[in-house]
Amino acid sequence: xxxxxxxxxxxxxxxxxxxxxxxxxxxxxxxxxxxxxxxxxxxxxxxxxxxxxxxxxxxxxxxxxxxxxxxxxxxxxxxxxxxxxxxxxxxxxxxxxxxxxxxxxxxxxxxx
Amino acid sequence: xxxxxxxxxxxxxxxxxxxxxxxxxxxxxxxxxxxxxxxxxxxxxxxxxxxxxxxxxxxxxxxxxxxxxxxxxxxxxxxxxxxxxxxxxxxxxxxxxxxxxxxxxxxxxxxxxx
Lengths: 112, 114
Hints:
Chain A is mainly β.
C-alpha cells in the first residue's frame, strides 16, 4: 500500500513568518512529488513539484526533497493570511503508474 | 490559460439512481483521471484513462463505476446505482505527456446521495 503521510495540523503561524510543512512517503520508487493548496470547498491547485534531491525555490515557496529519508517538505516564507488553506502533498506512482497518491493534508492558518 | 471543466457543479440524487459526471480535459493532455474526496477526508484516486482505455483503477472503482470518452472531448464517470457513501466531491484531472506528472484539476462535481 503506497502511503503519503502528513501532519494534519492545524498549523498556525503569524503573518510574515515561515510556515514549514512536512510529508513522508512509503514508495521508494516514487519519482516526483507535488504540493497542492486546497481552499475549503475548492479543487487542489498546484503550487510546485520536485523530483531531484535538494531544494527548489519558486517565489515565496521552497520545496525540499530527501529521497534517502523519503521526506518532502514545503517552506512558505513571508506567510500571508491568503496562504491559509490545506496543503496537500502527493507522490507520483512508480513504474508505469502515473497517478498521484495524496496525503491527508495539513491545515495552515496564517494569523494577521 | 487552458483549464479542465466539469459539469454539473452539484448534483443531488436519490439512492439507487444513476449519475453521470462530465469533464472536458485540457486539449493536448492525454492522461485523464477521476479522484474523489469525501468531506473532511483525503483526495482518493479512482481511475486513470489513457488511449481510450482504463490504465489503472483503485479498489474503490468497483463494478458500479465506469468511465468513457464518448465523443473525443468529454470524459465521463458513471455511477450505476448510487449509494449514500458515494456522496463526495468528484474531481476530474488531466496530465500532459512529457511533464513531471503534475495533475491539473477541474473545479469538481459535488454529489449528494439522499
